């Protein structure tokens, strides 16, 4: 449940001025390719990376990073209040104890009592370390149900990390390379994982051309070789050889290697360990695994993704030991786990006090959780679950007949036909009981059993594996497969991605492992066609139904009845329309300040050797002088603050860093010409540890030294600054970006509602024909012929003639929505045909964006783009724009962040434009949420009367 605290803080960050990803998330929404579960996971992921520095969870909670508790609302003793108000870790655990479930029941009331009464006896930092498995690296788990697209989410994380890593190559939060560990228990899981990552389109989350550039960067390696490479004098392990081919490893970026977890968690054999306890085959496997593990540990800026993380449970401790070893050797970004079932079979206990244990049946490192029930009817089929306390054959008979009655003729839009899976437990049961029974039923429905039924099992002495069954099974989700019923033994419990599977029958105990009844039952819930009403049928015996109900309560906090009803609200489809032609909205003419810099070379040669050997290149870091005094102010002495040794760096990495920081205007080849001199510099500004590894000497200003080295390779230059005022023309709508429909869970940001949108569009098309019945239209024509006056129907939305250049608008803030709906629309009604207002605040749709600059001394510095919220305007008789009021609505928390841009708009932009137009063409109106609604209206009306002379 810790993820609830993380989600709350993430939402606050997304709404704050500190959020740097708002435009990126808006782009993802507009693309409309990612599911709501995936987009919300991306928000959490980037929040933890950017706002939280990608630090371990125990550290973040200990530091109080997710705290928001108001102690004034809680009854506490003086001692407890003193501790909780100063110890952020204690406050974090108390806030966790106060969390409630969906029914409002407190989850840990006893924990709350212990914290309040025994805080002075609790080592909170130690408790959080144990809660989060005592790991010192980043270890986050994302929990999404099957069908939510976990592998696509992995691909999204890979591309996002690379995107940010290219912009900030030295930021340790972002990975450069990735190791994907497919489920160990699923031997055939590597290729599907690779396929989904490869087919992911990065333009769904990152704009072009960056998306295509990132896709070209990625290099895939499948580490699935079983035998040693022949004639290899580098490595004995062919999987290690694949990684070793990417030399130099220090410069590697964009590697995505996929393997099974078991290949890297085998027991380690050290040099001094007794190897006689292993036979030759075991020893060979272990040494090969050690070799792969060692070379993986040398991959820089590595992130490890574990798919279906619960499969790694048996080797979890070993895997953590391996990762700990990697973190000591090289830069390491952490572990990300993905699972639809983030629970433990046995509760874990963490000692809080001598008399109290914190018990948890969920994996505590879950940072994002999307419940199964939210997916039902959204991206999952809506299930109908039935069960009976009958014998196995009766349940199969009833289930097959009901499936054929409902889905016999169901063919999905992609050409696949609906299928039913029956889990049989044993091969003999399948061959001797289920197959003959299903054959009879299928024949009764007029189907050919040979074409409609697939038997798939591994075979035994009596019944070999059916010929061609593996190929048929792999082809089930294709439009040429005619199979309707699949009979299975020990296959298809999880990891089986067959979207056209529409029904499941678990007719007796033991047909699947008891702890996997939920996963197996849900195999048929994957949606075939996005945003369609699809259903599924699940038939169980009484034992499996009780087990399913128990697992739903334990893992999803819902009952079988709630699951069966599947009442989760579907995503809402928002239809969007352009009205630019209807309103004949002209482009905005304006003048924009442009600042350009011209480079002037002031020397003919760079004199590289002289500059590199100049002693002034060794710039020392700023030192801190600490003054020591007693309480009376008497000075006891002075001393310099000691600096710790910096991060590990190799000479080659250092050279590559210089190249990267030059934006590749320098090359490694040009640096190598001066390798001896550079090596002398490197050795002087680094120190070696006992293992002879180099680390930065923080007594030197490393950034400044690298800058001076780069300068040594170019002739001295000077810059001349050129300022000019450029005429521009911008459209208020980039029609090609107005995607329709878009699928959302929450339609509150959109205004007006879809009903009003449809009404306005109908009136635009043909008011009378759209809003009147045929009888009413006939009566009007008859009245016209008879010479009677015909009254015009009342336009239900007359504001459509003064606003809505596209429909609907999407407001990012409640202030924008309130101002437009409650203040602007009534004002428009007072000034019909005189004023128009258009929302310009969606920066993914508008072209009217203004470059802003800040003057420092005599030069202008670019500070970013400004996108006006609203444009209130009037027109000349010829339809061109006469005057514009730029209206900005800002919450108090955002005011400081945009203060420089607002100042530029209020002064330079307005002044320069009005000078060039020769009259007051623009005015800027700023409305902050510190004003009341009435004050904002009053200020707006005053500006309208003064500016437009109304």
Automatic annotation (TrEMBL):
Keyword Translocase among record annotations: no
Protein keywords: ATP-binding, Helicase, Hydrolase, Nucleotide-binding
MF annotations from Gene Ontology: helicase activity
Residue ranges of domain Helicase/UvrB N-terminal in the record: 135-342
Superkingdom of origin organism: Bacteria
Record-linked Pfam families: ResIII
InterPro entries named in the record: Helicase/UvrB_N, P-loop_NTPase
Protein name: DEAD/DEAH box helicase family protein
Species of provenance: Parabacteroides faecalis
